[in-house]
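Lab notebook page, bench 4
Experiment: in silico fold of construct C2
Operator: M.H.
Input chain length: 207 residues
Purpose: comparison with the prior construct
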Amino acid sequence: MEMKEIIEEIRTVLDEKDVLREEALRLTREIVRLSGDAIKALHRGEPEKAFDRLKLAGERVTKLREKLSGHPDIYFTGYVQSAHQEFVEASLFFAYITGGTFPSPAELGVPHADYALGIGDFIGELRRRFLILLLEGDIEKAEDVYRFMEEIYEELMTLEYPKGLVNIRSKQDQARHILERTLEDLTRAKLSRELEEKLETAIGRKR
């Protein structure tokens, strides 16, 4: 082939990939936005709205996978992986809040590695739920959330793979720090309540 023909072939291929990349970026931004909306709706006690947002996000996850079929160099990139993580996080949180079963990677249509990373983010969202319950004064339910966080963390720690396969170590480290802070918050809240109860009892006796 002439060099001119080779360059033209390269241009054709890269032009196609550039268009796909722009479309992928648009879809990933929508997935992140819709997943975030779903999480916010769940914290506000609006599961129906969260379901609608997750449905739309799921449609875009499917569209993204179909569009990038045959283009693994784009599909397995950081921004696609990040969008998948957000979708996994929101989907797991929805299942937790509504009492449903947790969807599998196949059911969500995302790679297993992306799903694993999303579990780490899910633990962070559970902490937010924990803090909201503490602010509402419901220490018992907050403790239930903490215990569940412990269970998820223990399962997450069984995933030991090299960074080149899945960068799970950073998520595990983040989850450990989150769990430690959550336990400190729970301990302080329980001690504070015990102190309040003792003071109330003492005041009652004086009366």
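Observations: Helices lie at 3-43, 47-67, 72-75, 78-98, 105-108, 112-135, 139-156, 168-206. The chain is about 85% helix and 0% strand.
Next step: discuss at group meeting.
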